[in-house]
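Box 3.1 A note on notation
Throughout this textbook, protein chains are presented in two layers. The first layer is the amino acid sequence; the second is a token string describing backbone geometry. Keep the layers aligned when reading.
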Amino acid sequence: MIVGIPQERKNNETRVALAPAGVRALVERGHKVVIEKSAGARSGISDEDYLQAGAQIRAQAADIFNEAELVMKVKEPLPQEYDLLHEGQILFTFLHLAASLELTKTLLRQRVIGIAYETVQLEDGSLPLLTPMSEIAGKMSIQIGCRYLETENGGSGVLLGGVPGIKPGNVTIIGGGIAGINAAKIALGLGANVIILDVNLDRLRYLDDILDGRVTTLASNSANIEGAVADADLVVGAVLLPGARAPRLVTKDMIRKMRSGSVIVDVAIDQGGCIETSVPTTYDNPTFKVEGVTHCCITNIPGTVGRTATFALANATLPYALKLADLGYEKALLSDKALSKGLNVFQGKLVNRAVAESLSLEYTSLDASRGVL
């Protein structure tokens, strides 16, 4: 199979979909890997590194999309890439379709086979391809929050860890999944007071146990969210419903009760955000204020630590990429339940129920589609 790796074009996106070790593994199995010139440069991977691993370099993105049977990316295609996609092509990347009706309709119209990293799901419910990026985003959410709490950045001037004689800052984390727990680890390491809210009481018991009781765990409901948000210097939105649009749990009325100069980092923005006032931002223009509260809603938070994020993501995606290349998409999807859950669009049909319900589009079950597989 011909595997293509284009350069990422999202604002300040420094990741690349495949590391040299992955190229080597694919080439050793008889596959051809074509990579756009300088695709890995911002992750510290040179074209020469890829050439030595057995890849071939192409001058521009159009060359990659024209040639590749399997296109691997990091982020969803942008409008300038829509016309490069073609029928029957396998697109393996983060898609986050529940937050983009335009992209969903484009992939359906182009009749691609769209497999989303974020909905590949194991039987235990874990998301192996999303996990490493959630780990990074969770950790970075606290770093970002600290930056925008600084007075010179329009913040309230609160140091999350405090100093002797001064109480530490308050961090409220909505969602106790992978991003939430990693945010908590960093916030606790700084010495902040941390509250985590989640709807799953078993998850809260687990968090209380592994974090040695250093966090306050609260059942996620509107009353508890309102109280925890009002007292927070930093709110981290870390809610995830696999494939679906994130529920808006923090309302504008709740934000109005926060101290001026407080900060919200909505990690859930890729799936539409869990804060009512959130809108997507970029690293070029990362923040805006509502009711005196700084909002940071960058849609590719891990992109600013490209080297770490690239290798973490590539480690997770490679086994699935090898399966797709070795078996072809039909056998790969039929033989791997986790991978089959990653299938979002298939030859003009929307086969992920959560995406369909989020966008009010027609859903076709995977079983019904298998007549084509």
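The radius of gyration is 21 Å. The longest helix spans residues 306-335.
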